[in-house]
Amino acid sequence: MSRRKIIIGAVLLVLFTFVATSGAFLYMLHINSTDIAGTLKLFRVIQLIKSRYVEEVPSDALLAGAIKGMVNSLGDPHSIYLDPKMYKEFMIETEGSFGGVGIVIGIKDKMLTVVAPIEGTPGDKAGIKSGDQILKIDGLDTKDMALDEAVSKIRGPEGSHVTLSILRSGQDAKEYTLTRSNIQIKTVTGKMLENDIGYVRLSMFNENTGSDIGKKLQELEKQGMKAVILDLRDNPGGLLEESVKVAGNFVPKGPVVSVVTKDGTRETHSSNLAAPKYPLVILVNGGSASASEIVAGAVQDTGAGTLIGTKTFGKGSVQTIIRLDGGSAMKLTIAKYLTPNDRSINGVGIEPDIKVEMPDFKENGKDLQLEKAIEVLKGKL
């Protein structure tokens, strides 16, 4: 038997053992000949590198590289491979704290872009804004840099520094040197304004947001709140389940969001609220993304309130975290979401009911969007 046949036979044995022991045998029965040939090619490349590359290469490094390459080939900035360190950081972030400079980033128009700064963090205090493009990280060009790689480079130990080269529309590029800190996120804040109007600010949606907003609304109701402003500006989103809980405080009984998967399966998340309790205005802008857009879209479609501000970011896809061996994971886009009127806003965003632009610098400290919200609610009381 030739050496080639021995190698191919060994690869087939390894492949069969892998799929059988991983519980993927049924899937194996459904893949076509092209898939099988491609899988064999992958294993052959691994074997060639292991046997002929000039230096020793750990098998786990080769497999991690292969997985990362496959996910990156999707061309979807929201689908990423998370190595053990990144996965740990991701889980900590959704629990409410993480290390970094406090900016949420994404890919927009093929550029690394700030979705939103998180209030009170080094990025926010330095003046970084939603829509800013990050050209370099510590002098490294971000062109063609994967989103997960950029996140990893921006994060680091508390007290260390990172320099970002930022391009803002209509301005020259500017460098910001930021000191990393442990980011503690309080997602819900609020207060009473004039005319018994409550103001609630959501900075993002983590696992505590749904319960925290319920408590805040009860607190404001005890103070006599008769109308409410929900501020979702520069809120980059977060957990879908929490957005449904938040919407359940404002959207009347019925659909909040529908999640549609590749095969057309539809899962609808609904509100159980008998009827809206009070007039509502939601403030949105280009930094309002993902879970923020779920809430805003549901309110707009059901007529439960008025959207004021500027067009939202336009992230209408749903990701899930799939744990892999060795402490790693994959964040994979598995569905798109639709508003109650079956609108897909991915890449499009949501236009507000009343458009109010905000100048780069507040005139005399005025918040024109907030002032408009108060004016609209006064007319409904």
From TrEMBL:
Listed EC numbers: 3.4.21.102
Entries under Gene3D superfamilies matching the protein: 2-enoyl-CoA Hydratase, Chain A, domain 1, 2.30.42.10, 3.30.750.44
A GO CC term attached to the entry: outer membrane-bounded periplasmic space
Entry GO MF terms: serine-type endopeptidase activity
One annotated GO biological process: signal transduction
Signal peptide: none
InterPro entries documented for this protein: ClpP/crotonase-like_dom_sf, CtpA/B_N, PDZ, PDZ_6, PDZ_sf, Peptidase_S41A, Tail-specific_protease
Residue span(s) of domain PDZ: 91-155
The keyword Protease is assigned to this record: yes
Keywords: Hydrolase, Protease, Serine protease
Membership in a protein family: Belongs to the peptidase S41A family.
Name the record gives this protein: Carboxy-terminal processing protease CtpB
Gene: ctpB_1
